[in-house]
Amino acid sequence: MNDKLGIMEIIDRPPVPPANSVQPARAALVKRTTLETDVTASLNLDGVGTCKASTGIPFLDHMLQQIASHGLIDLDVQAIGDLAIDDHHTNEDVGITLGQALAKAVGDRSGISRFGHFIAPLDEALIEVVLDFSGRPHLSYSLEIPNQRIGTYDTELVREFFSAVVNHTQMTLHIRQLQGGNSHHIVEAAFKAFARALRMAVEIDPRRASGIPSSKGVL
User: Which conformational region is residue 55 in: left (phi greater than 0), alpha (psi within -120 to 50 degrees), or beta?
Assistant: First the structure.
């Protein structure tokens, strides 16, 4: 009798995947062309943090490198835009295309942890980011950046970038400044905190397997 119970216990246990099994790549490539810009973004959520960014906006390239490095996302963003006018269109369209690529890579959001939270310090700056792959786009943004420009980059464009990502990924994103006085430190800490929160949210929850992380059963 005990032997039979032992056999039944083994049969009822879920199969354990081989140690060398490989999950399907969660990757995406999106190309977006308008009369103002031509942007291509490719990414792999399960990467190692490699980044190729050439947008014509050096500071934006630097921030994309933060997303890749601290989010452990392999990212390649190439953009040509009407920079002779200003950086606005290119900055926004990079955010749109990156958001579309993120949405494509997570698919129906099966198995992901869904929520992410991180507080990043950079010297005197301390920035909190909380996000939810909710399927409902919402941005709460409270950065107070002292200077209008970091190098040649207009700091008003930070909000525009995140707004574009949020709307096209369909995520809820809260960015809150806890401390900070140096413009570069504030913005870079925000991107680093976003990267780490993003990494947390898109990681696979081993207890959820392939289920949708919602009581509604859909996101």
Answer: alpha
